[in-house]
Amino acid sequence: MELLLDGKTETSLVWAGRRMELVFNFPEVRILNRCRIELTGYQGLAVEEFSSSPDGVLREDLLGELEPASRSLDGSSGKFSGDWIADFDPRHMSQVRLIIADRVGQSIGLRNIQFSSRRMGPPPGCRASRSPSPWEPWSSAVPSTRPKN
Predict the structure, then answer these.
(1) 50 within a domain of the structure (yes/no)
(2) Strand, helix or coil at 26?
(3) Is residue 142 part of a domain?
(4) Has this prediction a pTM greater than 0.70?
(5) How many Å apart are CA 118 and CA 16, to the nearest integer?
C-alpha cells in the first residue's frame, strides 16, 4: 500500500476481486474534510461504505452526507476524469474505512488516495472610498496645484 501513496502517476494497485476494503489509520487525530481517489478505470465502480472514526470505536457515516450521484465512481457521478472527490463537513479522524465494489467486472484499480483538509475562510473584504461625483466640476473635486495670482 505504501507504493500506492508515492505520488507517481505510473504506480497503481489492481485488486482482483469484486470488493475492496481499505482502512486507513492515522498516527494522530486529524481534522479532514476531503477525500480524493484517482482510479485507473471507473466503469461500474461504487462506494459501499465510507466512514470515519475519531477514536477507532465510534463510527461516523460519511457516505450518508454525500449526494446519491457521488456514491458512484463511474461516469454517472458527473466526473469523467477518473477522479472521485468527496467533500464533507470537517471532522476529527483517526481512522477512515472505505469499501469499493466493482458492479460489472472483477477488478478494481487505484492510482492514488489523498485525504486533506481544505481551508475555508470569510470572503475577502473590500473597502470603499468616496470618489468625486461625475456631476461635480473637475476643478472642485481635485485641489488645484496651480499658484494663485
Answers:
(1) yes
(2) strand
(3) no
(4) no
(5) 33
For the stretch 97-148, pLDDT in tens is: 999 888 887 778 878 888 888 766 666 666 666 666 666 555 555 555 666 6
Domain assignment present for 148: no
Total length of the chain: 149
Q: Is residue 128 part of a domain?
A: no
In the beta sheet, which residues pair with residue 115?
Answer: 35
Q: Left (φ > 0), alpha (ψ -120 to 50) or beta: where does 44 sit?
A: left
Domain at 111, CATH number: 2.60.120.260
User: Which residues face 60 on adjacent strands?
Assistant: 52
What's the Rg (C-alpha) of the chain?
A: 26
Straight-line distance from the first to the last Cα atom of the chain, in angstroms, rounded to the nearest whole number: 86
> Is there a contact between 32 and 116 (Cβ–Cβ < 8 Å)?
yes
